Amino acid sequence: MDSLIPFTTSGALVDCVDRKMLVVLRDGRKLHGVLRSYDQFANLVLEDTVERIYHGNAFAEHWHGLFLIRGENVVLLGEIDLDQEDDVPLRQVDYNVLDPYHKKDIADKKAREDFKARMLYEQKGFCKEGGEGDGY
Are 13 and 2 in contact (CB under 8 A)? Predict the structure, then answer.
């Protein structure tokens, strides 16, 4: 019966080692890299890591190399299908070109979230606790 219970611990990551992965962090960053190691806390080590930013139908990459991620900051971890990776209908542009647009998108989202939180607090009586700003 125990063999029917799926892995729900970091042990489920054993099949992901040495594969290209997408990691979405609590602060919204999206990292692409090869998973080299992990531990019982789901802390991850990515190699050849790039951070991708998106705006409209374009994306840009910023090279980070070796990247250590604390497990509590991981929102999503998924394997990248290498056969379909190049078929993404987005065009790649220089990071410095896209960065100002990306920062504006982040600021706009924060302003919308702050407005929504203020309205919920003032009009509906919701509390302000739990708003650490990570969006998850």
Answer: no
DSSP state of 121: H
Strand ranges inside 26-106, DSSP E: 30-38, 44-55, 58-69, 74-79, 91-92
Q: Which of 17, 21, 13 is nearest to 82 (CA)?
A: 21
Distance CA 71, CA 74 (A): 6
Give CA–CA dist 29/67, Å, rounded: 13
Q: Residue with structure tokens 């080590």?
A: 45
Write out pLDDT tens, residues 71-130: 999 999 999 998 888 888 899 999 999 999 999 999 999 999 899 988 888 888 888 766
> What's this model's pTM, rounded to 2 decimal places?
0.80
